[in-house]
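New to this. Help decode the following:
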Amino acid sequence: MGIPVLILGESGTGKSASLRNFEPDDVSIFNVAAKPLPFRKKLPIKSTSDYNTICQGIAQSQKKAFVIDDSQYLLCFESFAKAKEIGYGKFTDMALHFYNLVQFVIRQTPPDVIVYFLHHTETDGNTGKVKAKTMGKMLDNQLTLEGLFSIVLMAYTDGKKHTFITQSDGFTTAKSPMEMFPVEIDNDLKAVDQAIREYYELNKKE
């Protein structure tokens, strides 16, 4: 029973930069949009937007941490591929494919595997609430994306420093288990990974 973790944030808030303290042996990255990382360190990257390739890559690896960067493009690219299809069935398919990926992490990986979904945000025009970006209300009606995750961190920057917000202020969907994190932490995904493993005592299970 692996652990999926959702890292939300606008472009430029430090989601990809948060990978900087991982070492190559620590993590494997699935780069959905095939963009370069924003730092010099070389980490193992596979550029793909194919769900099966991602699942196979996780299943066949001995590593314990994986990153899908940026996971909203899995929905976006599939939406473009189905743009000429008529009917609501395509929205159900897109929701199901993303849901199945998260369920694969939960149900078909070892308990000490953590998969980080780096994902863009959007703001609800009616409520002002910041949420995970999807492809519109048709898809939202099929899937509440944050509901699939127990840990949702919100990347934030004030222009001087980059942080993760770990609990909601009423206008975001950030959440995490009690006493796992302070309300605001450095945007260091390696440190987040260590904190999650300590909280759930995953190192003792290895």
